[in-house]
Amino acid sequence: MKPAQDLLNEHINRLSTAVALEKPDRVPVVLGIDAFCAQHMGVTIADLVNDLDRSNELMLQSMQDLGDVDGTMLTVITAHVVGPAFLCNVKLPGRELGVNDLWQVDEVAAMTLEDYDTIINKGWNYFFNNFLQNRIPKAWGDFQHFFKSDFKKFEMKFVNAGILPFCSATATPPYDYFCFGRGLTNFTKDIFRHKDKVIAAADAAMVDILQNLRQQIRAAKPFSVFVGAPRSAGELVSPKMWNTFVWPYLKRIVETVVEEGSIAYLHLDGNWERDLAKFRELPKAKCIWGSDHATDIFKVKEVLGDHMCVFGDVPAALLTLGTPDEVYNYSTKLINEIGPAGFILAQACYMPANAKVENVKALVAAANGK
């Protein structure tokens, strides 16, 4: 077996080559496993959520059992912050839910129209902390609980095993924060009835969002930055509104990531096919496109394959309901038709909690040519 440092360097070089749109020795594979490792390791999902140190250990054990994986999207269960990160509460297994239920974002729509003025006058950081503490205090408690942990320690366990923590910093555009905080119905009305106010609030929020992002990158020195935009897909927003409220802010975030010397991993849920060509405006060979399988990955390759690395895209249905041969064959198809240059093999979005272990191993085996 190779020493961990040699293995880590090999994985970093392989991923860097793919991002640079060149052909590595083999297509790299990155996995996003969290709840999946509960059934793989024989524990409940609540066990993972309630003990972050244990979740870190079991996630590493799970990944090591799956084969030669180049990178991990997560080093610890993030259930406590998926709600608070979007101005929402979160229901957790073993608390509001059964011990093997997946955590759920509880979109309470606690943000008011007047909160746009608070953001304009006092900034995003003031609003965010005040909102969590006073409007959704349970979410604030979850947020505080999560960030008491030693994340560098969690990352180093993967690093010491030769597996690269793939994205150690995050950024979200104002559109998605506002949409979750206000609720989809309220926010859709806002962008028509209060367009100027929403734009002013988004512009004001970006001052802190970009400064926070720069600080994260300088502190963490991540391989890539997770840029998530779960409500921004063109299937949810008209072209005019998308070009006003989504694209300018998403573009500035990506440009900031690149200015700071990192890579933008674009985690884009929903169908973005209408606007794929716009992404050619982003810096070449500095971005990674990843989706949840709603966007046709072959269209992404056609439009963007010579401009940015493509990531994905084995679907949840195949990983849960398919056979190992079907997973292996589809993964091989992706390697041959989307790769081998400029491509990272992965699941679509994150690994389903009920994915078959043998199917996940088949995905990894395809990348390794076994």
Automatic annotation (TrEMBL):
Residues 182-368 form the Uroporphyrinogen decarboxylase (URO-D) domain. It comes from the Bacteria. It holds the Pfam family URO-D. InterPro entries: Methanogen_methyltrans (IPR052024), UROD/MetE-like_sf (IPR038071), Uroporphyrinogen_deCOase (IPR000257). This is Uroporphyrinogen decarboxylase (URO-D) domain-containing protein.
